[in-house]
Amino acid sequence: MILLALQVYPHLTGFVHIQANPFDSYNTVKTVAGARRLVSLFQEVDSSFDPTRVCIKIAGTWEGLQACRELEATHNIRTLATTLFTIEQAALAAEVGCRYIAPYVNDLRVHFDKSYTDPSPNLALCVASQRYFLAHSYSTQVLPASLTSAAECMKLAGVQHITIAPALLRELAATQTGAKSPAAQAHSLFDDPSIAHAPVPPKLSYLNDEAGYRIAFTRSNKGKEEVKLTYAINTFCDMQTALEKAMKTVLSAAV
User: Fold this and answer.
1) Which residues are catalytically annotated?
2) Which residues constitute the domain of residue 59?
3) By C-alpha distance, which of 70, 62, 111 is closest to 86?
4) Reaction catalysed by this chain (predicted)?
5) 63 Cβ neighbours under 8 A, 6+ residues apart
6) What pLDDT digit, counting tens, does each position of 56-80 carry?
7) How far is CA 83 from CA 25, 182, 196, in A?
8) Spacing of C-alpha 201 from chain mean position
9) Is 91 exposed, middle or buried (CB count within 10 Å of its CB: 0-12, 13-18, 19+)?
C-alpha cells in the first residue's frame, strides 16, 4: 500500500490517505504505534517524501478517536475518523482534532450483500456534521464515504469533500442537466430548509467522558449505528486477513 500511495502521491494536491490496522480499532496504544510506523515507512521508501502529507484513517471507536487525539497533538500526524455513523462520533472527532471525518452514508454491508439496501442512509448526518463544525469553529472537515448512487452524490453537493467510486464518477459525467434520471432530478440537502436551516445542536463534549460518550453512542438511533460500526470493523478485519494471506503467498513464491 505504501508503494501504491507513493505512485499516486505526485498527482495529489492534498493528503495521501492510508488506513490503520482494523484489528487495533479498540486499542489506542497499538493504533498510535501503527500510524507512526506507517509514516516512517513512507520516509524509508522515499526519503524525499513529506510526512505531513500522510493522513491516517482510523476507526471511529472511543479508542480510535483517542489515538487520533495523540497523533494530532503529539506526533503531528493528520487523521481521519472513519466508519462514522453518528453526531456523537463527529463531535468527539472534532474535539480530538481530526482533520477529517468520513460519515458512512450507507451501511458497509450494501457493498458486499447485493440483496441488502440500507433502510436509513446517513445523508443528513453529513450536512449536520458540517454545520456543527462550522457553527462551533472546528477545523475538522466532512468527507462522506460509502455512497451507492450518483443521486446520493448529488444530494451531497455542497459538502467539503466526498469519496466517489469510479463507476459513480462515470455515471455523474454522463448525467445530462434536465434529464429524467434520479441523479439529474436530485436536489442538494444543503439547499433543503428542513435540514440546512435546522437548529445546530449545542457543543457536545466527550473528550474526558468515556462513559458518557459510550452510552450516547450506544443509544444513537436505538443502537442501529453501533451495529453498523461493528459490521464495518469486522469487514475490514476480514479484508486485512485476506490481504496478509495474499502477501504471504506472494513473498513465499518470491523466495
Assistant:
1) 57
2) 1-254
3) 62
4) D-sedoheptulose 7-phosphate + D-glyceraldehyde 3-phosphate = D-erythrose 4-phosphate + beta-D-fructose 6-phosphate
5) 25, 26, 27, 28, 31
6) 999 999 999 999 999 999 999 999 9
7) 11, 27, 23
8) 22
9) buried
